[in-house]
């Protein structure tokens, strides 16, 4: 099977790798159909590292993945041929964070495409059944947005965005757009700004009200979501 393997900054190779062998108990074999490119993938591609996570050996990129079930445990509800989204972090299940329901904080989480764990840009992956989600009628392209959308949903919940509140989103990249859509889903009145015209247009294509930077100055917002990750954005 083919895989997109990052060897060093600016050095991605499409390589033939052996398919995963016999399925371990509790795992699902998924034919990968769509993988989003996250900012973290771009960091590894550009710099070969994110902080303490350093690329030391070749690694498959991609963690925003969706695909089609090829084989699932007989006692799971998943069906062969079903579209699924993968949750990319596999926690230990035993530490204090995992045991108190905060498994996203597990210090030994195995996160796809975080060195040295291979990511999902390969034709087939095996993944623990508890972290494989049936995607209903969604296409794999749509289902691959589940992970970045979850960022927006979490942000909106954490801010307690309420029906009718005014929310400003700074930055109309994928995370900004998905956070804005999550806020709209909560019934907020959302405006999103970006300096880049193509990003504003992409936001408008989803039905959002997108504007140039500065056009929202002087207006009052109950919540501001900073989604550029830059000093200037803040
Ligand atoms: Zn991501
Ligand atoms: Zn843990």
CATH architecture of the largest domain: Alpha-Beta Complex
Q: Biggest sheet: strands side by side, in what order? A: 11-3-7-8-12
CATH domain fold name of the largest domain = Quinone Oxidoreductase, Chain A, domain 1
Mind telling me the CATH class of the largest domain? Answer: Alpha Beta
- Distance from first to last alpha carbon: 44 Å
Biggest sheet descriptor: 5 strands, antiparallel
Backbone shape: globular
Cα-based radius of gyration, to the nearest Å: 19 Å
List each distinct ligand once. Answer: zinc ion
Specify the oligomeric state: single chain
Q: Which consecutive residue ranges, at least 5 long each, have pLDDT under 50? A: none
CATH superfamily of the largest domain: Medium-chain alcohol dehydrogenases, catalytic domain
What is the string of helix and strand elements? EEEHEEEEEEHEEEHHEHEHEE
How much of the polypeptide forms β-strand, as a percent range? 25-35%
Quote the average pLDDT: 95
- Counted beta strands: 16
Number of domains: 2
What is the number of helices?
6
Which percent bin holds the helix content? 10-25%
Pfam families: ADH_N
Organism: Sulfobacillus benefaciens
Family: Belongs to the zinc-containing alcohol dehydrogenase family.
Keywords: Metal-binding, Oxidoreductase, Zinc
Tell me about this structure.
The chain is globular and about 60 Å long. The chain has helices at 39-47, 96-99, 140-143, 146-159, 174-185, 197-205, and strands spanning 2-8, 11-16, 27-36, 49-50, 53-54, 59-60, 64-71, 83-86, 89-90, 110-111, 124-128, 132-134, 166-170, 189-194, 209-212, 223-226. The protein is of the alpha+beta class and 234 residues long. α4 packs across α5 (174-185). It contains six helices and 16 strands. It folds into two domains: 2-144, Quinone Oxidoreductase, Chain A, domain 1, CATH 3.90.180.10; 148-226, NAD(P)-binding Rossmann-like Domain (Rossmann fold), CATH 3.40.50. The protein binds zinc ion (2 copies). One zinc ion binds at residues 38, 40, 63-64, 147-148. Its cofactor is Zn(2+). It holds the Pfam family ADH_N. Keywords: Metal-binding, Oxidoreductase, Zinc.
């Amino acid at each position: 099977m083919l895989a997109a393997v990052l060897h060093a900054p600016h050095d991605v190779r499409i390589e033939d790798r052996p398919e995963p062998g016999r399925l371990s108990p509790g795992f699902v074999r998924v034919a990968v159909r769509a993988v989003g490119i996250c900012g973290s993938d771009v960091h590894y591609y550009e710099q070969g590292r994110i902080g303490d996570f350093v690329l030391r050996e070749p690694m498959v990129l991609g963690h925003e993945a969706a695909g089609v079930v090829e084989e699932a445990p007989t006692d799971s509800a998943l069906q062969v041929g079903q579209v699924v989204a993968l949750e990319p972090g596999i926690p230990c299940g035993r530490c204090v964070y995992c045991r108190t329901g905060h498994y996203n904080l597990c210090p030994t989480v195995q996160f796809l495409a975080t060195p040295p764990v291979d990511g999902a840009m390969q034709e087939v992956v095996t993944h623990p059944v508890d972290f494989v989600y049936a995607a209903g009628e969604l296409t794999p392209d749509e289902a691959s947005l589940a992970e970045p959308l979850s960022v927006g949903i979490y942000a909106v919940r954490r801010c307690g965005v309420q029906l009718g509140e005014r929310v400003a989103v700074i930055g109309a990249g994928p995370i900004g757009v998905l956070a804005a859509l999550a806020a709209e889903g909560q019934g907020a009145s959302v405006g999103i700004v970006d300096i880049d015209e193509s990003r504003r247009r992409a936001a408008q294509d989803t039905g959002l009200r997108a504007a140039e930077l500065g056009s929202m100055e002087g207006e009052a917002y109950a919540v501001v979501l900073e989604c550029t990750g830059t000093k200037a954005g803040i």
